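Q: Start with the shorter request: fold the first protein.
A: Done. Sequence, then structure:
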Amino acid sequence: MKKVLALLIVLSVSLVCFGACSREETSSHQEENSSVVVKKTFARYYLVETGQSETGETIITGDFSHSLSNFGLSVTNKQRIQDPLLIGKSKKPFSTGINFTYAYTEVFIDKNQDPVPFYGSYDVYRNKANELMYLKGTDTLGFLFRTFDSKLSNGKGISEDKAKTVAEEFLKTIMPEEKFSQFTRVKVAPVQINRVPFIYVRHIEGYETDEFLSLMVHPCGEVSSYNGMNLYKYDTLESKIKKEDVEQAERELRAHVDRLNLKNAEQGSVTIVTNSQGKLFLRLFVEHDMGSNDRTYSTISQFYTNLEAVEPLA
């Protein structure tokens, strides 16, 4: 169970259901002005997105009144648009000289949000079955998928040490080494035969973030897939993340989940994430049982609380 939770946290798995929130007043910080202490507070929201049974029933009850989408945390719809400035443009990002041509711009849309959300717009370039995605208006590579002839591997695999060298050399071609040093490797088991996976996660104040890099190295010695859609996302947000604030939010979030008395609940670690407006939240995966005694099954729910003042979008 712990392995499942850890992998979900790293890969930012999204469960498609509805959630809600409750509200409490919590202390943010204090300011001194002419010897008068002013205590600032903001509404701490608790939201949950949970798995559902075959009949669609959920077990989360209580004082919930908002869904994740009301806070820009359920950005699941995608829209394809054409950027007239990029039509006909191409990129050759690899030493092989393969040409990738602009196809369209993909925008992740939140129903309550402007159609250009925070870190949610990517320019897509293609070459046959190969695809690249760049953060809109930048040279920041967010996604890569390449196909290789199986004959290139000669039926052999690739050692983990060799694959690690390939993966890290690739990463250092798309970001400065100083940036790469912010990431810590997380060990994961292979999910494809003869291909070696790698995941690197950025931590801030000792906490995981959803700024992660995942790669798959093909036996031919090339990176066949890469996902770094949130690369550089926290560079502009890091100064807003205070260790004591995250610790307090984590304590409150875990206590809130404990009060739900979920059956056979096992909590994972928390992850710093953002909503579609770039506001900071804390996410917690919880694996637990749901259903009646004669029909019980395991599911995984996501719980959130905000790390800064934020109001529902709708």
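Q: Next, the second protein, separately.
A: Sequence, then structure:
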Amino acid sequence: MSDHSDDQPATPVPTDQTPRATPIQRALREKQEAIAARPKPPRGGRFQREQAARVRSGAVRPWSSK
């Protein structure tokens, strides 16, 4: 009888983690995924025009700029 288990690895590597990722690299990847998952502000249209029409923060106190 021949055993076919020699051809395949004993335990497969989990797909959700890279095998050579350090804990810092994994934490950075998770942080970037969390940032990317946040809701984004609307783009274009009325919202963008309202944002562009705001008074700049320095325009309120013109004496403080040189």
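Q: Describe the second briefly.
A: The chain is about 35% helix and 0% strand. The chain has a mean pLDDT of 75.
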